[in-house]
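Much of the work behind modern protein science is quiet bookkeeping, done one molecule at a time. The protein below has been through that process, and both of its lines are reproduced in full.


***
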Amino acid sequence: MDFLISNWIYIPAFVVVITVLVFVHEYGHYKIARICGVKVDAFSIGFGPELWGRYDKNGCRWKVCAVPFGGYVKFHGDAGVASDASPEIEGMSDEEKKVSFHYKPLYQRAAVVIAGPAANFIFAIVALAILYMALGQAQTPPVAGEIVANSAAEAAGIEAGDRILSIDGKTISSFEQLRRTVLVGLDEPLKMKIDRSGSVIDLPVTPKIIEQTDRDGNTHKIGQLGIKSLGREFVKHGPISAVTSAVDQTWFITTATLKGVGQMISGARDTKELTGPLGILKMSGDAAKRGEDMTDRALSLFNFMIFVSISLGLINLFPVPMLDGGHLVFYAYEAVRGKPLNAKAMEYSFRIGLSLVLMLMVFATWNDINKPWIKDFFTGLFS
């Protein structure tokens, strides 16, 4: 019972994160569809049995369903939640065709599809910008406070007091930016520019690869220089610099995620690092418990939500049928050929896409099940 009392926050935190981000994503689709004159039949948060719902003045059914793993917007003329065309669309009246998604020009259909992932990225940028203006952005000067013995930094000749100016031609303005760049690079050599007492010198550095185990027992490969930083400060931004910094942070998370996926495909990074729904549930709860008071915990959960929003937007752009990126591939084909893919090929593509998505979900969930915290959770639950 004590275990349940101390860990009750996990499921509510997960539901909040998923509900907010699914709403943001689907509202992006919905809003652009309405601007393009598309009739929307249903806007659903979750799948399965309906728990609550109502019709708006345009005839759209807004509803919340029992299974909170996603959501959908059903356009007029859709056969199902994947926005595949209903066999009945050819028998529509002219008035119905005017408001059907499938009879809209190609550029409008593409805009509606890309609006979902775009909404997730915009949400992340706006949320980060607000945080940077209200509370400030945590920054540490990119200066070496201390060099760890037998480290990559020591081997390269970096000394205490050196300021890192750039890596591979990209300006480094904070220790956090330096750490992020090194963290995902694994054993790639880095070309650094160092300011040492006013003199600028070039130093090639190859980070040392270490395996780091987090508090949940998950092991990750990361690059490490072996530099300890100086004190940290919070820098408040004005509106323009806040948005610029938010875009930069969003871009970094996006590119780092893509780089990590590429490393998994090439074998440089273990696929066991892939996290599924159970892992997101765990991280949501951990974020909601982190901090001294309710404000700190809410901010921690909000920061985690920003990261997941970027990941959700990016994943949906992958060129897999069933995902938004798959639809965009079909539209690119239609733009080149001047006609859409035939119905049979489209059907098989959606089946393959659904199979791939389900297999990835099962694989990621299996990864979660085999992590130490699962055993600890159920041990605590029944002890």
Observations:
- Residues 106-134 form the longest helix (29 residues).
- The radius of gyration is 24 Å.
- The chain has a mean pLDDT of 83.
